[in-house]
Amino acid sequence: MYYEDRLANNSGCRMALDDLCRGSAKVPGGIDITAPWLHTVQVTDLSILHGLINAVKGWYQVPDLQARTIGSSVELIHISSLMLDDSASRLLLRQGRPAAHVVFGVERTVQSCKFMTIRGVKALEKLKNSRCMRVLLDEIVRKALTRNRKEIHPFTSAYNHCYPSIEDHIKALEKRSGSIIHLIKDLMTAASPLPSHKRPHSDHLIALFARLYAIRDDYANLPTLSTNFAPNLGLQAKVQSFYVALDEGKYSLLLRHALSVLPDDKAQLLKDMIVQRRVFGSFSEEHKPFVLEILRGCGSFEFVVGLIQRLQGAIFEDLVKLTLDRKGLPLDEAVYLTDDHSGYSVSPDLGYEVVWEREESVAVWA
């Protein structure tokens, strides 16, 4: 009942759980094969994906029942993919809690991934839509091939003394995290009853959102120490959370930026500490405050937050253009920046409300 209580307020996960509970979830010996998946879903924030599904279904006028089925299938497969990524990357923690393969072992985790991926495919079969099925199977195959080529683990390159450029690092993050955004859009497009000439041209917007999602996901794995993050936590608690995230073994964009701007001697020092983290399983207690000092000193936090904010601005502009085009309205003065520069306001004529904060934005169709 623990997982059912935790998922009670999450309609997408609730649907996925109901779907998988209809069939046997145990292998010979009474082992629950769904346990690693259920463990992982507890520490994964799916709210952004839920918001995107709700928005895209409105753009493409996908019926609610079909959209929920797509959402259920995507969640089953997305969580399974995260479990495989964590296992392949040998990450010990996910959001401060032990990763599934650490708790249940690699073999049982992989079995759970296979089982839940099949459940995800079977969930989508309910649509009886060959286009949707083709999109999903193509994505599963692409993920498998990419994972075998080890292209989706940008942070593992640090352990092999190979450091990609910032742009290459971001592209690798997009392959790892952003592909789920494209999958949602492609599935909704395939399920749309609209003729092709009436569908919104959202490719550029989705590409921007996929990049934002990937970078934000990477940044969220290393808790910020600003007052905007978890305001109820004291500074010391935030510092400890940051240290735990560093020990998860992630080679984040923060580290990549620091290596690109530091003088050669300090960059080499940071590289050596990253390698030592790999050897010993975590940064030493002496290394952690030093790494934090380096990241603060070279402006890595400001760089990543600035990148996120610029992407948010570009996404907002695309959202407005997409909506105006959909409603046949002129741009005019529909959008304006608030006086305190903390967000945007939108004319009611646009038909949706935008909730915008410095580190997160959500667009909801009215």
Give a quick set of tags describing it.
366 residues; mainly alpha; two-stranded antiparallel ribbon; flat
Please explain how this structure is put together.
Keywords: Magnesium, Metal-binding, Transferase. This is Isoprenoid synthase domain-containing protein. Belongs to the FPP/GGPP synthase family. One of its GO terms (biological process) is isoprenoid biosynthetic process. GO terms for molecular function: metal ion binding; prenyltransferase activity. There is one protein chain. The N terminus and C terminus are likely disordered. The protein is built from 15 helices and 8 strands. It folds into 2 domains: 219 residues, Farnesyl Diphosphate Synthase (Orthogonal Bundle); 63 residues, no CATH class. 63% of the residues lie in helices and 7% in strands. Strands 1-2 form a two-stranded antiparallel sheet. A two-stranded antiparallel ribbon has the order 3-4. With 366 residues, the protein is mainly alpha-helical. The protein is flat. A hairpin with a 6-residue loop joins strand 5 and strand 6.
Which CATH class of the largest domain applies here? Mainly Alpha
Compressed to H and E, one letter per element, the order equals HHEEHHHEEHHHHHHHHHHEEEE
Looking at the overall shape, the CATH architecture of the largest domain is Orthogonal Bundle
The low-pLDDT segments are 1-17, 19-24, 151-160, 225-233, 331-366
Mean pLDDT across all residues, rounded?
74
Number of strands: 8
